[in-house]
# Entry
Amino acid sequence: MRYRENPSWQSVYLDAVRDFLKSHGIADPKVRITLILRIDLEGDGEDEVLINATNYFSRRDEVPMHAPKRGSYSIVMLRRVVAGKVQTQLLAGELYSKADASNAPNIYKIPAVLDLNGDGKLEVIVHSFYYEGGQTTIYRCEPDKIEAALSVECGV
Ligand SMILES: [Ca+2]
Ligand SMILES: [Ca+2]
# Structure
């Protein structure tokens, strides 16, 4: 594994998550970052940053069965330099600018970042799960886009 975890959650990442949530209709975000990975995804010598943030206003790692509260979210973001500018993109996730009584929310996590197809570029594996099942998706991060390469669902 070539990545290293950075335990000091720097304010720049908190700000990035806050700005993202604000721009998606959450006026007063309660930012809770669960993981930051600094990693060079394509091997060009420049680190990308994966940010995982989840807050369902429940105990850590607990998925509410239904009805996410207003302002809750679970997201995986990719922060990287594109054409000399820092960009923050949503890789996977969901967020609720208002309470949603009809929805069973998912928690998103990054279990691994691996070169699965041996092309020298790393794929990001994202696991999402709700109260009775889950899904694993593999994302390829190209310079100009992010695409889901493979997705596997599983019930519990
Ligand atoms: Ca890179
Ligand atoms: Ca690869």
Remarks:
- Residues 4-155 form a domain with the Lipocalin fold (CATH 2.40.128).
- Residues 115-117, 119, 121, 123 surround calcium ion (ligand 2) (CB under 6 Å).
- The CA atoms of residues 65 and 131 lie 5 Å apart.
